């Protein structure tokens, strides 16, 4: 046996280690151990290359290892990593100012968190302080996260049932204004909506429903909170998904693309919400730390300088056109829907085995959205050629 083979045989089984120590709540996909990424591509420890049409679950909007983002993180890591928010920090201040540039003007107050679920929970606390009401309306097929507050609003019973009793949440059908109207009584302090339901199947909101929800909230003293965790930062072809519908929510919750792949979240809210807050009403040890702030500052600058969001809108139009031309006439395909670079391909059967085939046979990574939807969330920097690789892989696995 050669020295190289001996060395390889002594290497730890990294997948086994993760599964043994970290696998209690995680359903893995495949045996590959991923070690490197660049742009829209990932490489595993054997050197096999994969096209990542998931953007690491919608997070790596700028692709993997963007050189400007990586340089900003490295520079900040050598300067200052931790600075609590009871002390002022230069990088945090610059990031807040940059984020304010791209937010709708009426959302002129920001709280920095670490994740989407934390942003959701913080938004619920803010709404409670403003309205002094405990009732919440969310929608069927919604997904807002896994903390107790966020999972209370997440509709899928498998996520909710083991942890009941939860918060006082009423779920109404998505895009059904009549049901929302009937449920929005004096108990309700906040209505929480996605403009596109990601995990729920890439279901696109209707203008009549979303605008009607805003009108009802104004009439009845409830707040409108929009979950922009997956739809924010260019995913839909605009900075934020609610901008497609001319909404003016009281609160929006952000994460995923805000840091270009680095973990962070944020809440943005209007003057009305801000009047109810007080020192100590909410807090976060790590929220807005200098390292995350450097990532967010660099990411937004890249979005602007490289016209990433305009490119995403263009690539989204191309992707839908090519998917419709290539797949829509296949019996297995029920519908192709979405907006921007957020696409759901609904099948007439369960999608799991096709997702596995895409990874194993074609080296293409995609996501599920429910049991029978293949979801595409490519990095916003994806090229036409890379989209075509993914489309041809889908054509290869889905029966004609």
List the helices and strands and how they pair.
Blueprint: H1 3-10, H2 14-22, E1 34-38, E2 41-44, E3 49-52, H3 55-58, H4 67-77, H5 90-102, E4 109-113, H6 116-131, E5 135-139, H7 148-153, H8 157-160, E6 169-172, H9 177-183, E7 188-193, E8 196-197, E9 203-204, H10 207-220, E10 223-227, E11 251-254, E12 265-269, H11 271-274, H12 290-305, H13 308-327, E13 333-339, E14 342-347, H14 352-362, E15 364-365, E16 367-368, E17 373-376, H15 384-397
Helix pairs in contact: 4-12, 5-12, 13-15
Written overview of the protein:
This protein has helices spanning 3-10, 14-22, 55-58, 67-77, 90-102, 116-131, 148-153, 157-160, 177-183, 207-220, 271-274, 290-305, 308-327, 352-362, 384-397; strands spanning 34-38, 41-44, 49-52, 109-113, 135-139, 169-172, 188-193, 196-197, 203-204, 223-227, 251-254, 265-269, 333-339, 342-347, 364-365, 367-368, 373-376. It is an alpha/beta fold and 400 residues long. It has two domains: 34-65 and 307-397, Aspartate Aminotransferase, domain 1 (Alpha-Beta Complex), CATH 3.90.1150; 68-305, Aspartate Aminotransferase, domain 2, CATH 3.40.640.10. The strands form four sheets. Strands 4-12-11-10-7-5-6 form a seven-stranded mixed sheet, sandwiched between helices. A four-stranded mixed sheet has the order 1-2-3-15. The chain has a four-stranded antiparallel sheet with strand order 13-14-17-16, covered by helices on one side. The longest helix has 20 residues, at 308-327. Mean pLDDT is 95; it is low at 1-10.
